[in-house]
Amino acid sequence: MKAVKIVLGIVTALIVMFLLTGLIVTDVKYTAEVEINKPIEKVFEDFQNDELRKKWLPEVKSIDPIEEKEGIIGSTYKMVVTNQGQEIEMKEKIIDYIPNKKMTFQFDSDQMIKVDDYNFIANGNSTKVVQHCSVNSKSFLMGCLLPYFKGSLKDLSLSYMNKFKEAVEKN
Question: Record's SUPFAM superfamilies (predicted)?
């Protein structure tokens, strides 16, 4: 009986800690970066190339314009991605755009809001691309889970960045 109480106490403590995570951690932030052996103008141009995007973001099934604004900032798109065989629809909005310097996207799905801020830094004949990410959950349960997946999210971003590097350097 004493062992059952101990096990129940440990399980209860773990559940409480898990639920407290959702209250304490409101967003997850991480950074990924890559150095590309091409000039900044070429890297920035390729970053916006829809055909090349299919090579480094293979999960993206479609990107359809909802509203395209003249200055690019504020343009919105309907994006469909495949994740483990399931299609997920989200809204992509460009919230910042400085040619050859910066492009920031906000992705809004049923579960979360993610902001990807890409900064392009010239380094001689190569370009450093730094991606700052912030993920906020729309549900309490997802908020409890997100901090435990920060490493996986960062690894996925780094994987995409490396695929982008390969695609640009081959192009």
Answer: Bet v1-like
Q: Which residues contact 76 (CB under 8 A, 6 or more apart)?
A: 65, 66, 67, 91, 92, 93, 94
Question: The dihedral of CA 145, 148, 154, 160: what is its sign?
Answer: negative
> What residue has token string 């483990």?
84
Tell me, yes or no, if the pTM score tops 0.70.
yes
Which of 107, 52, 45, 98 shows the shortest CA–CA distance to 77?
107
Average pLDDT, the chain: 88
CA–centroid distance for 58 within its chain: 14
Homologous superfamily assigned to 2-170: START domain (3.30.530.20)
Q: What is the pLDDT of residue 170?
A: 87
* Short-list 65, 98, 97, 67, CA closest to 79: 65
Q: Is there a contact between 96 and 77 (Cβ–Cβ < 8 Å)?
A: no
In this prediction, residues 47-56 reach a mean pLDDT of 87
Per-domain residue ranges for the chain?
A: 2-170
